[in-house]
Structure formats: structure tokens, C-alpha cells
Recover the amino acids of this structure.
């Protein structure tokens, strides 16, 4: 299942539309006024699905993922000198790749590829392709991508 993550160009707060391969809206992400990043995800019928909350009293960016009111995991930016690195405490997943080029993969604890993320270059607004291997992982994979994007925007 491929998702296209596209930031809205003119928005006061972070807002994104997430489309499927056929251009249908799958999710809408709405930024909320808060200390730090707070993003809420809604399905195509405008039903609330999940929240990404940035912890504000941390040395490096840290985000909590909540789905249906339950905390599912945490994404942290790691301290490194030359290239960005993120730790994922969520579903046994890890993230690997080239964050400087914005291309990376989400892998399970067994090494199975959960999703491949690629940034589309030369676009007015941030646009990513999220290739999720299994549909049931799409929302959680989207939340990981949102956290990494928010952490990189903090720079």
C-alpha cells in the first residue's frame, strides 16, 4: 500500500493530506496549537484516529504516539555529530537509512521491511511516498514518519 504524504502549502499549523495510490484521501493530519508539535490524525470520514505529541522538556526532540487513546510508542532523535539518527520504541520497530537525504526504512524486530519512505524532491511543499508492506501497519508507520519530519523541522 503506497501513501503520499503531502504538506499543505498555506497553513498556520502543520497540516498534511495523506493520499492512496489512486489519489483518494486516506488520512488528514491537523496541527494543534500547543507547546511543541501536536498533530492529530483523522480518517477519510473525519473520525479521530491518533495523536503525535512532542515532549517539551527534553534535550533532543522526543515524540509520543497515541492511537485510540493508548500510547503505542516513542520516537527520539539521538545525539550524533554528523548524521541524524532516531530511536524507535514502538512495536519493536527500528528506523534505518539516510536521513540527510530524507530516505529511510522502517524495519521490524525480525528485519522485515515495514515501510520504505522517500522524499519527493523539487516540490513546493514537503511530499513523501510511504510504501507500507502491510495495510494494518499504515497508521503507525505514518505516525513514525510524522515524528521524524517534525524532529527534522525543529532544526
Amino acid at each position: 500500500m503506497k501513501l503520499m504524504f503531502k504538506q499543505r502549502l498555506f497553513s498556520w499549523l502543520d497540516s498534511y493530506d495523506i493520499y492512496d495510490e489512486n489519489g483518494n484521501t486516506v488520512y488528514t493530519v491537523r496541527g494543534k496549537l500547543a507547546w511543541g508539535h501536536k498533530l492529530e490524525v483523522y480518517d477519510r470520514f473525519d473520525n479521530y484516529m491518533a495523536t503525535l505529541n512532542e515532549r517539551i522538556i527534553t534535550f533532543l526532540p522526543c515524540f509520543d504516539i497515541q492511537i485510540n487513546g493508548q500510547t503505542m510508542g516513542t520516537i527520539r532523535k539521538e545525539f550524533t555529530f554528523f548524521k541524524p539518527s532516531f530511536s524507535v520504541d514502538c512495536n519493536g520497530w527500528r528506523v534505518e537509512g539516510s536521513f540527510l537525504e530524507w530516505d529511510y526504512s522502517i524495519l521490524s524486530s525480525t528485519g522485515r521491511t515495514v515501510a520504505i519512505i522517500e522524499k519527493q524532491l523539487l516540490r513546493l511543499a514537503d511530499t513523501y511516498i510511504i510504501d507500507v508492506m502491510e495495510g494494518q501497519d499504515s497508521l503507525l508507520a505514518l505516525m513514525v514518519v510524522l515524528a521524524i519530519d517534525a524532529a527534522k523541522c525543529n532544526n
